[in-house]
Design a protein that fits this description.
- The two termini are about 35 Å apart.
- The protein has helices spanning about 40-45, 160-170, 175-195, 260-295; strands at about 35-40, 90-95, 100-110, 120, 125, 130-135, 145, 150, 195-200, 210-225, 240-250.
- Strand 4 and strand 5 form a beta hairpin.
- It is built from four helices and eleven strands; from the N terminus they run E-H-E-E-E-E-E-E-E-H-H-E-E-E-H.
- The chain is globular and about 65 Å long.
- Strands 3, 6, 7, 8, 9, 10 and 11 form a seven-stranded mixed β-sheet that branches. A two-stranded parallel ribbon has the order 1-2.
- The structure holds 5-O-phosphono-beta-D-ribofuranose.
- 5-O-phosphono-beta-D-ribofuranose (RP5) binds near residues 151, 203 and 214.
Length: about 300
């Protein structure tokens, strides 16, 4: 996967970045004029950096514990190198960790239904609803301000816990703290029992640099009947200004979300719609066999 969102003349907050030629992203491409700009958010170089960030002295970092998303090389200064190539910026930028920064992304889906509870189809393909948030930081601009309600893995968490916690914080923002604990537990059980991993790997995130980058695991939980997810009272919280059900259908010409999130919605759509259409097809075939036996002709309707 080549990155497109972490290149260009400006980094986050308009910090200048070396404007890389898009055909020269790969490390193996000769680029003698490459002159990346070094940037570390001021809080990281403070004598007491935030607890979630790496210390200034990197000699104590156990790099082999950061290999879950793949191996990476090191530059001549001993810093990890972005496996997807150049970005025009060295240092950690605004990311707390050198090398991979791990996140988790919930992709909660159900079908869009009409007032009679029937799934809505356009051109014989069902319309999917997924939970999205509007990022308070504006995301990567325009429609890229909408995102899955994901977030960083906290110390000691497994990614399924992160996904449950982030969903409850960002998309169910008005829960009381007692309800929150219970909700996170139920969501975690739901993710473990019915979740399907859609993606695990590098994220094309605007915050990536040559030495620090985002990785994530995206898990889809699909409520086929909609009976459970219909009861969600969505409201933005934490880093989310708003939370909402958003539509996806393959006929959408322009479908953009933060970072690489749109790709995962498309992938989840392929999986859940093919499950749905194959079950419809099986039902139709069973019906056709019975009616065929009785000497009737049947046409398939949606
Ligand atoms: C993206 O950034 C991930 O896919 C995840 O959605 C998000 C995590 O960062 P924050 O939302 O915590 O800023 O790369």
């Amino acid at each position: 996967m080549t990155h497109t969102k972490c290149i260009g003349p400006n980094y986050v907050d308009n910090t200048p970045r070396f404007n890389i030629e898009p055909t020269r992203i790969e490390w193996t491409t000769f680029y003698p004029t490459y002159a990346p700009i070094e940037y570390n958010a001021p809080c990281f170089t403070h004598p007491i950096p935030p607890s979630w960030a790496d210390p200034i002295d990197i000699s104590a970092i156990q790099w082999n514990k950061r290999n879950e998303y793949g191996l990476f090389n090191f530059d001549s200064r001993g810093y990890p190198m972005n496996p997807n190539g150049r970005t025009g910026m060295t240092g950690r930028g605004v990311l707390g960790k050198w090398g991979p920064n791990s996140a988790g992304d919930p992709l909660f889906t159900m079908w869009k239904r009409d007032n009679n509870g029937e799934i809505i189809y356009i051109d014989n393909l069902p319309v999917l609803l997924f939970v999205a948030i509007e990022r308070s930081d504006g995301g990567d601009g325009g429609e890229g301000k909408y995102a899955l309600p994901g977030g960083m893995v906290d110390a000691g968490e497994v990614v399924t816990q992160t996904i449950a916690r982030e969903f409850s914080e960002e998309a169910l923002g008005t829960l009381s703290s007692d309800d929150k604990v219970e909700t996170i537990e139920s969501l975690h059980k739901l993710i473990n029992s019915s979740g399907r991993q859609i993606y695990k790997g590098y994220v094309d995130d605007r915050r990536n640099t040559d030495n620090a980058w985002m990785v994530t695991t995206c898990i889809n939980v699909h409520d086929e009947s909609g009976n459970i997810f219909n009861q969600f009272k969505l409201s933005g919280g934490s880093d989310a200004a708003r939370a909402m059900w958003m539509e996806y259908h393959p006929s959408l010409q322009y479908f953009k979300l933060y970072a690489s999130h749109a790709n995962w919605v498309k992938k989840a759509y392929e999986l859940v719609s093919s499950d749905l259409l194959s079950s419809k097809f099986n039902t139709f075939n069973q019906l056709k066999n019975v009616l065929g036996y009785l000497g009737c002709a049947v046409n398939q309707h949606n």
